[in-house]
Structures are given as C-alpha cells and as structure tokens.
Amino acid sequence: MIKRFMDEDNAVLLGAATFWEGIDLPQDKLQLLVITRLPFDAPEQLEVKARYNQLKAAGKSPFYNLALPKATLRLRQGVGRLIRTSDDYGVVVVLDSRLATHQYGQTMLKTLPTSLPVKKAGLTEIVKGTQNFFKIHRSSAQD
Q: What pTM was computed for the model?
C-alpha cells in the first residue's frame, strides 16, 4: 500500500492506528495530515479495560495516568510523520474539537513543537488557509 502511494502523484492515503507509528514518507509525498479523531484507545477493548481496572484499583485515574499520555504520544508521532527534517513543511488539520474545547487538549498541544502555529478555525478558513500556505511555500521553493 505504501509503495503504491509513493508511486502516485497527489495520492491520498487513509490510515488507522498503525499509521501513527513507523511510517516515514519523504517531504514531497506527505504535506497534509488530517487527523479526524484524537488517538485515544477505545476503552471497551479488553486489554485497555483490564489496564484501566488495575489503575482504578490502585487509586489512580485511568484517563490521566494512561489514556491521555498514550494519546498525546500518538499525536506527537502523527505530527512527526509530517515534519521529519528542517526542510520539511506541511499542514496538520485536527478535526476533533476536543483539542480546543477540553482542558486536556491544551495539555496535548503543549507537547507539540513550539514552532508549530496552532489556529482554531472553521472549515472554510481551514481550506483557504491551507491553500494560501501551499501557495506561499511552493512559490518560495521555486525562487
């Protein structure tokens, strides 16, 4: 699947959990990363439920001691797929409103690179801003 993606121009690759880790695509193949949902484990998964129960039994919060740190690490890994070197550029769009509306979203944002500008916007503004971003970067790359 990755090889087919690499061989195409303007290809779209849709991925799930395994795409958060271990994929390294060169700059010209990955410039726009859209994250539809924050990468939290599904709490109803048997392994996750068992670990949550262990934490509860120990008097700890499963969310703050396991779920949030894991999801934060995955988010950082996802963003890391896009920006690998100092020459890389691109746009990350997170469609999950929890990043902006929940306190833990701020915690997650604080772990991302400080050079990454963060903006809260509607869909129309996101599309226009993304188009402008690529116009600017593509024209400066040609200079």
A: 0.83
